[in-house]
Specification:
The complex is a heterodimer of chains A (about 525) and B (about 725).
Chain A: H1 2-7, E1 19-26, H2 31-44, E2 48-53, E3 63-71, E4 93-96, H3 99-107, E5 117-121, H4 128-132, H5 141-151, E6 154-158, H6 160-166, H7 171-182, H8 189-199, H9 203-219, H10 244-256, H11 262-275, H12 278-297, H13 306-319, H14 324-331, H15 334-344, E7 351-358, H16 362-368, H17 371-379, H18 381-391, E8 395-398, H19 402-412, H20 415-418, H21 422-442, H22 446-454, H23 463-482, H24 489-502, H25 507-517
Parallel strand pairs in A: 1-4, 4-5, 5-6
Antiparallel strand pairs in A: 1-3, 2-3, 7-8
Chain B: E1 20-24, H1 25-35, E2 40-43, H2 50-58, H3 60-66, E3 69-70, H4 76-82, H5 85-88, E4 93-99, H6 101-116, E5 122-128, H7 142-148, E6 151-153, H8 159-176, E7 180-185, H9 186-189, E8 192-196, H10 207-212, H11 226-248, E9 253-255, E10 266-271, H12 275-284, E11 298-301, E12 303-305, H13 309-316, E13 321-325, H14 332-343, E14 349-351, H15 364-378, H16 380-383, H17 393-396, H18 399-404, H19 422-435, E15 440-442, E16 460-461, E17 483-487, H20 488-505, E18 511-516, H21 544-550, E19 555-559, H22 565-577, E20 584-589, H23 593-609, E21 614-621, E22 641-644, E23 655-658, H24 667-674, E24 681-688, H25 692-715
Parallel strand pairs in B: 2-3, 2-4, 4-5, 5-7, 6-7, 10-11, 10-13, 13-14, 15-16, 15-17, 17-18, 18-20, 19-20
Antiparallel strand pairs in B: 1-8, 6-12, 9-11, 21-24, 22-23
The chains are: A alpha/beta (about 525), B alpha/beta (about 725).
Chain lengths: ~525, ~725
């Protein structure tokens, strides 16, 4: 070997190896900028550096990877041969611009405990699959955290996106700061600044973000402010409310409901009263008291009154249905405008307006009318159809124009009509039937009764979505009733609920139903 | 105008002798073309070649100065045919495209070109879109090079090597009267690096010279009997000349011990593009250092077709076994090496795909394993005492990582925020909800993302611009109509004739949706015939509607704002139900949002800075109105429309939420109206620098609104705790 080396005019077999950095990101979100900075950084120090990427279609929001290798050349004039893609088990630094992408990099095998520094932002950008589920479908970030603690030699994980936004910059600046602070590269902090300055765009904000990330990486999370330190949820009902009407309801919770249900019942009560009035709140508590008594009789004390607590939650949701009055009411509140102002970052001298996209149908209008009038209209198909043609169309409503605001305000104030309305009649009927199903199984199967209460979760949305929700609810309820006598009925009911929540097409739910039907 | 501007980078194309070029591979290739004295360049965009086309477009002034003609070709077939300028005249020309798809499209022209042969150097630069990140079928360009006899250059991923091979490639082409192909992989196109520049060269002979002194030679035209002569010429003259040239100019390279130093029994024969990964693999096996000083002899085929017999002979001297390293299948190089050696009755084992996988990326890990096994069988002492190779298996089998496998969701590419194609598919989904599913032929382009969630629309894709053509069989009266989709890019590439013309002629009864977003968007926003922007070097603003009418279509509907979901749905419905005969053509037009934003954002920022009245819009969701059913997301998939958890123990499901990247395209609102979803969406309009009238209206309405709000809130039951 030695002869050969001499003959080729080379130094002896070198043991130098490059530093490798993989940047995993979503297409079009700044991975390229960071890659450019890192190359610039290395080259400015006389190193040889090479980056590669596979943009292609991935640049349209898909997961993608950038790869950098750098080396301090040996001075013989020989250029190192650098690799074009990361090798699992041989990567020094992995930088992930999103938390699940950090998880994906672990699955690629490029994060290994013997060498890899993992720099990852803990924020989530949800994938389409996660967002599509008709209910909760978000991937478990805890699994990523668990894996990181096992596979990374050094982990630097915090919400870099939030830090960047707070400092008026983009995430690449924060990741660059963490890279500098990680000690993975042998370059001075000042050199990083030079690179940012040379890029010439938003320099000040980038450096501010860089510094924040640098400090955060070195010193860890800032001490939480006093008072915020221990945020363990302990709940106690307020002593006394200023409004006597509210206070009376509050004391009813205290005296009539078991303690574990207090928090939810108190929140539920506020929701119900806000929806309608004090009397409606009283009705909520009447129903709840009855359910809590039955809970006690069924041995609920030993179960922490789970039945009553669950009822407090779902009964409130059932009583606060989404009708046009509620929508108009919510859209015209002060807090709503304040929320929008905050969202758009409204500044002095700017004027805000909002446009609503509403599509009322005769169905919603009729449902709001008193039962008698509504039934009369529905019986007259031609008139009903004629009215529907007038009403059933998309409307763009300028919320804060005087004309529209007053109209919405008026509709939002029609609460006095609500309890006589067709919709209310239907909702009460549905609610009573649901509660009675839960009551019926309570004595024989406590868990099943709790699950039956939580079926209410399936009913949501407006128009067709609402109808589909109702039909899912019915299917789940009917199937559950058919197996109510089984010991494992609660498990199956839970499975039915989960499959209905996860899959909009209903295929999964049908599958579970088929399985259950095969029992008999 | 393209998505990415290279205005700054193209300055580097002016570098001359003594300068060091430093930058991306695609720019280095462009510089090499200018150093080679090309007279004309052309091509068709598509990753990884898009940026080459963008660089050329941005380098127009430099090209003008050098007298180089640049054409944005209508298709790869056009680009391939353009090389015919080099048939009779000593003109150097280069064209570029994505391969193998582009090479397939161009193959007719390439066959004719290589049959007659060339006088001037003709080069095709193919971006080999193979392996990770690829958007096409996994095939090798190698096959086409062989069957048409086009020399295939596959340089080591090193810019000096790439540049040198381009310069030498033109000489090779001229010496052997044969076109050459330069194959560059995705990573090499986007790889940064450096090389020592030469001065750019003006073409010695120009297109003007050619036009003013036309020449013809019947022997160069593909017609019998000349065509038979061409074949003999290929075999007898061009191939041997090429082989001599390649050997004499050392286009292929030998690394590691040679001649007397070659004491081992094994060697590697490597396709140029695989060199870097091979060296890294050898490094892991303790057989090379980072500088490429290898203990194993390596023969690098920077020319992967043809095989140079004498070089193979020389390399194999003293070896018992060689391993051919070539990516993709089938194993053309391995076969060729075997043939060469077998004919000589050499006793040497040729291996390749028996140690390495037949298909897929040849990553370092794959090569380390394959080379390791090869050496273990044929020369185990080479492996000796070595450090353990990097191994991620123990990590990947950790329970915490195993668990992660079921957690991390897939993240395929999708339509961008505000994409005008989203409402088209939302409308189609609404139509299907009413009329049942239909057969949908998809096409190549951004619109192909419709096949993924949340839309799940589209059954097949048969090639660029071939969406309508691929529905040709479904011309059946009385059945549900087929729907085909094609982008404006595919339309001008070939779809006007292959799809629409065909449907008109055959009285096809189907529905044809042409997605017109003013650019060839999927490839990076290049201008095409129907682009609406003014382009001083090209004639734009040519109507798709006029074109389809011109070709004979009668039922044609133009939708000028795709975001109008109601209209989109109604027109689709009409197309599916009308009694009119022949193709039902819908041209759905709205500007690509990526390009629109790039164009408008600076203007808006400038207007605001200049104190002018500007209304900035953004969509939002009222979280208390939203019930968390996510029906809107199932009709959208917009990156800016996400979900968020509320801090409310009464609610189970996250509600919809729109982040700050929203561009207020309106899709959310339109869809929620068309599908009668819910009233949660709103559009927030912020007036910057309001006019007097704005201020007046606000000053009148706001106090009244506030009065009403406070009045109601005062009367409401308050749950405020006493004493606070």
């Amino acid at each position: 070997m030695r002869d050969n080396a001499v003959k080729l005019g080379l130094k002896a077999f070198s043991t130098d190896r490059p530093i490798s950095i993989a940047i995993v990101a979503m297409g079009g979100q700044g991975g390229g900028v960071l890659t450019g900075w890192i190359i610039e950084l290395a080259e400015s120090q006389g190193w040889v550096a090479q980056s590669t990427s596979v943009p292609g279609v991935a640049q349209r929001t898909g997961a993608t990877i950038y790869y950098v290798e750098m080396m301090c050349a040996n001075g013989t004039g020989q250029r190192p041969v650098l690799a074009q893609m990361p090798t699992p088990g041989d990567v020094d630094v992995v930088i992930a611009s999103e938390y699940m992408e950090a998880g994906r990099s672990i699955l690629r095998g490029i994060v290994t405990p013997d060498r890899t520094t993992l720099i990852a932002s803990s924020h989530r950008a949800l994938s389409t699959i996660e967002k599509m589920a008709p209910g909760e479908g978000i991937a478990d970030s805890g699994a990523v955290a668990d894996a990181i603690s096992v596979v990374a030699q050094q982990e630097i994980v915090f919400d870099m996106n939030e830090m960047a936004v707070r400092n008026g910059s983009v995430i690449s600046s924060a990741m660059f700061g963490s890279l500098a602070a990680s000690g993975a590269l042998p370059f001075e902090r000042e050199v990083y600044y030079d690179v940012i300055r040379k890029s010439g765009k938003g320099v000040e904000a980038s450096i501010r973000t860089f510094d924040a990330a640098f400090e955060r990486t070195i010193y860890g999370e800032p001490e939480p402010a006093a008072g915020e330190a221990q945020k363990i949820r302990t709940f106690a009902l307020p002593e006394r409310l200023a409004d006597e009407r509210a206070n009376e309801l509050l004391s009813r919770i205290r005296t009539e409901l078991p303690e574990p249900a207090h928090e939810i019942a108190y929140l539920g009560l506020q929701k119900v009263v806000d929806f309608q009035d004090v009397a409606y709140g009283g009705e909520y508590l009447d129903l709840l008291r009855d359910l809590a008594e039955r809970d006690k009789a069924a041995g609920g004390e030993a179960r922490g009154y789970e039945f009553a607590t669950t009822a407090a939650k779902y009964l409130a949701n059932a009583m606060v249905y989404d009708d046009v009055i509620r929508v108009a009411y919510l859209k015209t509140r002060t807090v709503r405008r304040a929320r929008v102002e905050d969202e758009v970052g409204l500044k002095d001298g700017q004027i805000l307006n909002t446009t609503e996209f509403m599509h009322p149908r005769m169905e919603e209008v009729a449902a709001t009318l008193p039962v008698g009038l509504a039934s009369w209209l529905i019986a007259r198909q031609r008139l009903y159809g004629w009215l529907d043609r007038r009403i059933n169309k998309g409307r763009r409503i300028s919320t804060y124009s005087l004309r529209w605001f007053v109209s919405l305000y008026f509709v939002g104030g029609l609460k006095s009509m609500r309890r006589k309305s067709l919709r209310h009649q239907a909702e009460v009927k549905h609610r009573d039937a649901w509660l009675s199903e839960a009551r019926d199984v309570l004595m024989s199967n406590y868990d099943l009764a709790v699950t039956v209460l939580s079926f209410r979760r399936l009913i949501k949305g407006y128009s067709d979505t609402h109808v589909r929700g109702l039909s899912k609810f019915d299917k789940v309820m009917t199937t559950t009733k058919s197996i109510a006598a089984r010991d494992d009925a609660a498990d199956w009911a839970g499975r039915l609920l989960t499959s209905a929540v996860k899959d909009a097409s209903g295929v999964e739910l049908e599958g579970t139903i088929k399985t259950i039907e095969s029992f008999s | 105008m393209a998505e990415r501007s290279f205005a700054k980078e193209v300055e580097d194309l002016k570098l001359g002798k003594g300068d060091l070029f430093r930058g991306e591979g695609i720019l280095a290739i462009t510089k090499a073309l200018l150093q080679s004295g090309v007279a004309y360049v052309g091509g068709y965009q598509g990753s990884p070649i898009s940026h080459l086309m963008d660089v050329l477009a941005d380098a127009n002034d430099i090209l003008d100065e050098l007298g180089v003609v640049f054409q944005s070709s209508a298709s790869e077939a056009t680009a391939g045919a353009m090389l015919s300028a080099s048939v009779m005249y000593p003109l150097r020309g280069a064209v570029a495209w994505k391969s193998t798809v582009g090479t397939n499209v161009a193959s007719d022209a390439l066959s004719n070109l290589s049959s007659g042969g060339v006088t001037g150097g003709a080069m095709v630069i193919v971006g080999e879109d193979y392996g990770e990140g690829s958007s096409i079928m996994q095939e090798r360009t190698h096959a086409i090079a062989m069957k048409s006899q086009i020399w295939l250059l596959d340089p080591r991923p090193d810019q000096s090597c790439m540049v040198n091979l381009i310069e030498k490639g033109f000489e090779l082409s001229e010496a052997s009267n044969t076109p050459v192909m330069l194959q560059v992989r995705v990573r090499s196109c986007h790889m940064t690096g450096e090389f020592a520049c030469k001065d750019n060269r003006r073409p010695d002979f120009t297109l003007k010279d050619a036009l003013n002194n036309p020449k013809r030679d019947l022997d160069r035209i593909v017609l019998p009997p000349a065509a038979y002569e061409h074949e003999i010429e290929k075999i007898k003259t061009r191939m041997p000349t090429a082989i001599d040239f390649i050997r004499d100019h050392n286009l292929n390279e030998f690394f590691g011990p040679t001649d007397a130093d070659k004491k081992g029994r094994t060697g590697l024969i490597v396709q140029g593009g695989m060199y870097n990964s091979t060296i890294r693999a050898l490094q892991f096996l303790g057989l090379s250092d980072t500088y490429g000083n290898s203990k194993l002899p390596i023969y690098v085929m920077n020319v992967s077709y043809p095989t140079i017999q004498s070089e193979v002979d020389e390399f194999c001297d003293g070896l018992d076994a060689v391993l051919a390293i070539e990516e993709g299948q089938p194993e053309y190089i391995e076969q060729s090496i075997s043939t060469v050696l077998a004919r000589e009755k050499r006793v040497i084992e040729v291996h390749g795909k028996d140690y390495l996988p037949m298909g897929g990326d040849y990553t370092t890990a794959v090569l380390t394993e394959g080379i390791g096994k090869f050496l273990a069988d044929h020369e185990p002492k080479q492996l000796g005492n070595r450090a353990p190779v990097p191994d991620s298996v123990p990590t990947l089998t950790d329970p915490a990582v195993e668990k992660l496998r079921n957690v991390v969701p897939p993240r395929p590419p999708g339509l961008c925020t505000g994409c005008p194609e989203r409402p088209i598919f939302a409308a189609m989904k609404l139509v299907f909800e009413e009329m049942g599913d239909h057969h949908v032929s998809a096409d190549i382009g951004c619109h192909l993302f419709s096949i993924l969630p949340p839309f799940n629309i589209g059954t097949t894709t048969m090639g660029y611009g071939l969406g309508p053509a691929s529905a040709a069989a479904f011309n059946v009266k009385g059945a549900k109509r087929s729907i085909s989709i094609m982008g404006d890019g595919g339309f001008w590439h070939n779809g006007l004739t292959s799809g629409i013309g065909n449907a008109v002629f055959n009285k096809h009864d189907g529905v044809f949706v042409i997605v017109d977003n003013y650019y060839s968007s999927a490839t990076g926003g290049q201008d095409i015939l129907s682009s609406r922007a003014f382009n001083k070097r090209r004639k734009t603003n040519n109507s798709i509607v006029a074109a389809v009418k011109g070709i004979g279509a009668t039922w044609v509907r133009q939708i000028d704002r795709t975001y109008d979901v109601n209209r989109m749905r109604d027109v689709l419905m009409e197309a599916l139900t009308t009694d009119e005969e022949g193709p039902k053509i819908i041209v759905a037009s709205s500007e690509c949002m990526l390009n629109k934003q790039r164009r408008e954002k600076p203007q808006v920022a400038k207007a605001i800075k200049g104190g002018r009245r500007v209304v900035k819009e953004k969509f939002g969701v009222d979280e208390d109105v939203c019930t968390g059913d996510h029906a809107c997301i199932r009709l959208s998939g917009c990156p800016s429309l996400s979900v968020k958890e509320l801090d409310d123990p009464l609610r189970d499901d996250p509600v919809a939420s729109i982040d700050t990247t929203c561009v207020a395209c309106g899709n959310c609102g339109e869809v929620s109206d068309a599908a009668v979803l819910c009233p949660s969406f709103f559009r927030a309009e912020v007036i910057h620098h309001p006019s007097g009238w704005d201020k007046f209206k606000d000053a009148v309405s706001q106090p009244i609104i506030r009065y009403l709000q406070h009045r109601r809130e005062r009367r409401a039951v308050s749950f405020e705790v006493q004493g606070t």
